[in-house]
Fold this sequence. Notes:
Strand 4 (146-156) and strand 5 form a beta hairpin. This protein has a single domain (3-19, 27-176), classed as Rossmann fold (3-Layer(aba) Sandwich), CATH 3.40.50. The protein has helices at 3-16, 39-44, 46-55, 68-75, 79-84, 94-108, 132-139; strands at 29-34, 59-64, 116-121, 146-156, 159-162, 169-170, 174-176. The chain is of the alpha/beta class.
Amino acid sequence: MSAIDRLLSNYSRQVRLPWSAHTSGKQRVWFAVYLPAEERRVRARLTQFEALTLEANHGWTTVDLTDLLPKWIAAHEYREGIFAEPEHFSANSELEDLAVERVRQACASEDANTNSVVAVTGLATLFDFMRVSSLIERVEDSVRGRLLVLFPGEYAGNVYRFMDARDGFNYMAIPITSTESFISP
Length: 185
């Protein structure tokens, strides 16, 4: 069984567990953790995550952040300067603010109720421009059902490392990994 097949299997078990309505926003966040090299393969199988969610009688909404950076740069008034001297480029908090707004909108949509999963994809495209931990902390209060973060990185000892390069962060989210028997049946 491939790592992605195990990740899907573990996700299937997680999404079928009973959902308590009395959990904090932090506890409503799930991180599907996989190696960064598997990003395209995981994205290609996103429809399987959706199918497993629907089979478990939950709703599904996807929010894709992949185009956030290129659209932001294209609309930036100093884009020519950014391209001329990219080493001086800094997105500051503007890009993170846009990502937060996009995720909050998805969580507030009519389809994203207390019985739904909102899946966040495309975080790899924002590497080096924003911190995932900050994004999650800013949107956790908007999560009504569950927030599934497709997370290219690693998880060990309650610490998440985005793209295997940043200092890790300790977060209360539920990790879903490709480790065999990660979740007890």
